[in-house]
Amino acid sequence: MITAARALKALPVAMLAVAASHLILSDTLRLGFVAQASATLGSPQGYSQNQAFTTALINTALVMPLVLWVGLRITGERKVWPVVLAGTAAWVVAVRRGLDALADAPGVLLPWTSLLLVVAVTALAALIPVRRPRASRNTHH
Q: Could you list the mean pLDDT of each consecutive 10-residue stretch along the chain, which spans 141 residues?
């Protein structure tokens, strides 16, 4: 029962983390399109499309674990590392698989199935039993 409650707490946090990570990814990739367009028109913006692309990948890889960790801690959960690791790994795989579509046009979403799969994997990772440390006994009287 406790693990089911953990998964129910992880579900909205995972949805928020996926939404935030996707927003960061797509908005930062949009900078790459702006840089490409302005360079084509002869007025470069000071950053290249490659810089924007690399920044998008780094930012989205950092946002996912941060939002998961903070969100689960706010809900009162401890030992959140399995959820953070599983959610981040699932997100990296989803982005890797859908990157070609994202890199072709601004405003494109990752496939819904990928997004839902990331949310499901993240929430299900909350069901992984985490050993709680036993209270240490004080041997000194």
A: 82 95 82 66 64 77 93 92 94 87 72 93 90 62 53
